[in-house]
Amino acid sequence: MAEPRFAVGDRVRALPVDPPHHTRVPRYARGQVGEVVEVQGAWPLADDRARGFGSPRVEAVYTVRFPAGALWGAAEEHWVQVELWESYLEGAT
Amino acid sequence: MSGQHASSQTAARVRRLEERLIDAGLTSDDELDGIIGRLLSGASPANGARVVARAWIDPAYRERLLADANAALEELGLSMSTGPQPQRFTVVPNTPDTHNVLVCTLCSCYPIALLGPSPSWYKSEAYRSRVVREPRAVLAEFGLELPAGTGIVVHDTSAESRHMVLPMRPAGTDGLAEDALAALVTREGLIGTAAV
What we know:
Chain A contains two helices and five strands, in the order ββαβαββ. By secondary structure, chain A is mainly beta. Chain A starts with 10 loop residues before the first strand and ends with a strand. Chain B has helices at residues 3-23, 29-40, 45-57, 59-67, 69-75, 112-115, 125-130, 135-141, 178-184, 187-191; strands spanning 88-93, 98-103, 151-156, 161-166. The radius of gyration of chain B is 18 Å and the shape is globular. The A-B interface holds A 24-26, 28, 40-41, 43, 46, 61, 63, 65, 68, 71-72, 76-85 and B 88, 105-106, 132-136, 151-161.
């Protein structure tokens, strides 16, 4: 597997995808920007496994922290941490 | 509709699915029984409580637990490798500044080996959809009123890790032995919907 593309502290955007198959990007996180707080290591991509691919892509999984105010409205002040495979993410500023 | 009725419908659907998989030669009843038996034998929130009590009395163990929870479990004879595949395990500590709470918004992922089978509310759409959005209100409904200054982190278990909350040790428990401390810890405390 390639080196993880992102590191702790990087800002990332969850891609605004809506694939016709199983995926593990919660809808509320799609298109949202968060910060990588942990690199979990590499795991087979759930989307590929769910589609029965014999050799699923193996990718870094990141714990990404999103501010609830961005997800749900400014009144909410908590954090939501989501665990996302690398191909769900792009770099953000 | 009663819960009993819903659960027997689900059981029938699961059985039909198992039969299809067995007919296709992908698995067998023996294999499925073996996986479920290994997963559930000894799976109990008493395991999580033991880990918490040890972390409360042994600061060095707490440090190892937060750094590499899978390895720290092995020290107590516990494991996250009883299911169909080993799972990465992390422990998230509550502090006066930060309270942690667990959810799986996509389905019902849960550290069964450490906490036993999950409570039905953990799998409910109400809990899964609300706790990510308004955790302070949801926790209050569980009877947990957090101080206004305590921030909340909601952990959505969306990949291959499983988590457990490390509650803060209650005040006034200095004289208690490890077993007595473990008896204070509840399943809800390990999920984050109770203080301990």
